[in-house]
Amino acid sequence: MAGKVGFIGLGAMGGPMALNLVKAGFKLVVHDIDQTKTAPLRAKGAELAGTAEAVAAEVERTIVIVETTDQAQAVIAGERGIIKGAKPGHIVLCMATIDPFAARTLADQLAAQGIAMLDAPVSGGMPMKAPNQAVAAGRFTNAKMPATTTQPRKKSLRSRRSVQSAHASPAARNPL
C-alpha cells in the first residue's frame, strides 16, 4: 500500500476504524490525547506521533475523528495542528460531527495553505453495527454532489455559498 495514513482520535469510533485500516494493510501514524488508546495500534505496527502537527508531517492524508468542534479546531488548525505540519496537497478527512460553520472555516484555513478537507462526519455509535452507522460525505466545492448516507437520495444538494457540508445535509433531509 503506497504511503502512510495519519489517524487522529482513537476513541470508541476511531480506534476500531484505525485497527481495520491496519488489518487492511495500511501503514498508520496515530495520535490521541489519551496515550493508552494508541497501544493496540502500536502493537500492530502503527507509528506514534506526539501531536497532530507531527502526524501531518509524516503523511499525505489524515483522518480526524474527535468528539467536539473545539477538539477538531485544535487538531486541525491549532498551535500544534495539522495545518502546521501538512504540505500543500495534503488531504484532511474530518469525520468528526462538528458545527458546519466551523467545518467551513477550517476548510478555508486549510485551502489557504494548499490543503484539502473532506467533511465526512460519522453518525452512529457503539456498538458499531452496520445498520446503525452512516457517513454523510460532502466536500468543499461549488460542484453539485449527492449527499451519501445509508438512505438513498433522489436529489442532490447544492449550496448557495460554494460549500457542500455534510454536517448540514442531515438537517436538510430531515426537517422537523
Could you outline the blueprint of secondary structure elements for this entry?
Layout (H helix, E strand, L loop, with lengths): L3 E5 L5 H10 L3 E5 L7 H5 L3 E2 L3 H7 L2 E4 L4 H9 L4 H4 L5 E4 L5 H12 L4 E4 L2 E2 L10 E2 L2 E2 L28 H6 L3
Parallel strand pairs: 1-2, 1-4, 2-3, 4-5, 5-6
Antiparallel strand pairs: 6-9, 7-8
Helix pairs in contact: 4-6
Question: Which H/E pattern describes the elements?
Answer: EHEHEHEHHEHEEEEH
Flag low-confidence runs.
128-136, 139-164, 170-176
Number of strands: 9
Count every helix, treating DSSP H or I runs of 4 or more residues as helices: 7
Derived from helix and strand composition plus strand pairing, the structural class reads: alpha/beta
Mean pLDDT: 80
> How far is the first residue's CA from the last residue's CA?
45 Å
Helical residue percent?
Answer: 25-40%
Strands ordered across the widest β-sheet: 3-2-1-4-5-6-9
- Please give the largest β-sheet: 7 strands, mixed
Strand-residue fraction? 15-25%
The quaternary state of the protein chains shown equals single chain
Please state the CA-atom Rg, rounded to the nearest Å. 16 Å
Choose one word for the global shape: globular
